[in-house]
Amino acid sequence: VIAMPNLDSLDAQHYGKYWVGLDAPRHLYHFTPKSFAALLKKHRLAIVDMHALPLDSYYNALLSEQLRAAAQGKSGGIGAVIRAIVWGSLAAIHGVIPEHASSVCYYVQRIQ
């Protein structure tokens, strides 16, 4: 079982360089479901199932709003919270399909 942020998610595209999923040192490598499957295949592994982690959409949006505000020398405030709720909700809806989710939980198995 491997859980990680999804570089193809709606919130990743929206926040760009301020997306918290890019935050090092927690995330040194970044994948889309397709690129992760390709990496696994090279090592005789395969994704057997995957599902979205919907609450991560809100968490990622809130932290990304804070990161963007700090980078712009702003405090964020209530506006950042409202934007995070809106973008978190949009990302959660978009993430009903796991390949588009903010964060994905992968179930991986060795290929015989």
UniProtKB/TrEMBL annotation:
Instruction: Please give the start and end residues of each transmembrane region.
Output: none
The UniProt GO MF terms for this protein read: methyltransferase activity
Which keywords, in A-to-Z order, does the entry hold? Answer: Methyltransferase, Transferase
Q: Which InterPro entries match?
A: SAM-dependent_MTases_sf
GO terms under biological process: methylation
Protein name from the UniProt record: Class I SAM-dependent methyltransferase
Native species: Candidatus Thermochlorobacter aerophilus
